[in-house]
Amino acid sequence: MTTATCVKKAVVVATLRSRDLHGRADWVDKEFAQLIDTTNNAGLLQTLGIDLDTLADDAWAGPAATDPEID
Fold first, then answer.
1. Burial class, 16, CB count within 10 angstroms (exposed 0-12 / middle 13-18 / buried 19+)
2. Does some domain include residue 23?
3. Is 63 part of a structural domain of the chain?
4. Long-range contacts of the stretch 51-55 (C-beta < 8 A, 24+)
5. Domain count of the chain?
6. What is the value of pTM for the model shown?
7. Range of the domain at 47
8. Are the beta carbons of 45 and 52 closer than 8 angstroms?
9. What DSSP assignment string belongs to the chain?
10. Is pLDDT above 60 for 71?
11. Considering Cα of 27, then 32, then 37, then 40, what sign does the dihedral take?
12. Residue 31 confidence (pLDDT)
């Protein structure tokens, strides 16, 4: 199993909404699973203006599958 850095989709959506980018937030909410693999989606996250360094507290290294803590 590949290890990747992951971030919860809700964190990305909330970040976009806080910037009044509701259309982009809606798209991310529809297109992604509960966990976003930041390695595979680095370019897209950069295009969306998501700085992974600012999300360091909400990201972790782990399998890009499901996290048992996700609601």
1. buried
2. yes
3. no
4. 52/5, 52/7, 55/7, 55/11, 55/12, 55/15
5. 1
6. 0.76
7. 3-58
8. yes
9. --EEEEEEHHHHHHHHHHTT-HHHHHHHHHHS-SEEETTTTHHHHHHTT--TTTTGGGEEEEESS--TT--
10. no
11. negative
12. 96
